[in-house]
């Protein structure tokens, strides 16, 4: 028999031919495939189960509170016991004012503290202590912030006030701003900082011209998350701002807020007040949702 030699330079056939191609078809006999399907189904089940309370609360708020949404809710004062109609415009104004005071206090102090923790003294004793206390304050009970401001601010002023409420909210907002801003500044590439110093910038110029502008989206995300957190707080406001049925004219007087209005009206035996509490709850949830969406948009990476 003639021996047919393979032509010079040709590639010898692969042993086994097409059978050597790996089989990528799904097989239930594969233990890893079964494990993957079971774990995926379990994760989806847990996620759907966790979403049930959220969806049910949103459904109740939309059904119960959505029917009362109207322009008068944002322009009129809360009604008395047997009165019909009314609104909670003063509560919205009081909430905005106190959250604004909290932001005006916590943002500059939080950013300055974050600059020190990220750039000036990240590893010294003061930096480590400040970072530890900031992390502790993230779990600080909100009612204790109210008690502290009652003893320090309310008793000193001799009256409940929107200013005291804003200071109490700033204590809860400050650690979120500090820790988020610090992490945003640490994400700025070291090469950018070294390049700024290499061309003759001082450390202050490097922080002001390079670090802060680059970390601004992350800092803004922390601010939005802090605002979303304190917008719905009620416990500290019970000790500081109390409540009022009138429009706010000075920050040195008691003021209404959405969370306290919900607390007061939900326990009243009048149907009109209960409906207003539902509507105020829906408005408050929408406000918090807007700030959370803004934090996600601001924190989205830019490509």
Task: Walk me through what this model shows.
- With 303 residues, this protein is mostly helical.
- It has helices spanning 31-66, 72-75, 89-120, 125-137, 142-157, 162-186, 190-198, 203-231, 235-240, 258-266, 271-298.
- α1 crosses α11, α6 (162-186) crosses α8 (203-231) and α8 runs antiparallel to α11.
- It is flat, with a radius of gyration of 29 Å.
- The mean pLDDT is 87.
What order do the helices and strands follow?
HHHHHHHHHHH
Note poorly predicted spans: none
Mean pLDDT across every amino acid position = 87
In terms of structural class, how would the helical and strand content be classed? mainly alpha
Distance between the termini: 69 Å
Helix content: 55-70%
Q: Output the radius of gyration.
A: 29 Å
Characterize the overall form.
flat
Number of helices: 11
Largest sheet: none
- The share of residues in extended strands comes to under 5%
The strand count comes to 0
SSE blueprint:
Layout (H helix, E strand, L loop, with lengths): L30 H36 L5 H4 L13 H32 L4 H13 L4 H16 L4 H25 L3 H9 L4 H29 L3 H6 L17 H9 L4 H28 L5
Helix pairs in contact: 1-11, 3-6, 3-8, 3-10, 4-6, 5-6, 6-8, 7-8, 8-11, 10-11
What is this entry, summarized?
This protein has 303 residues and is mainly α.
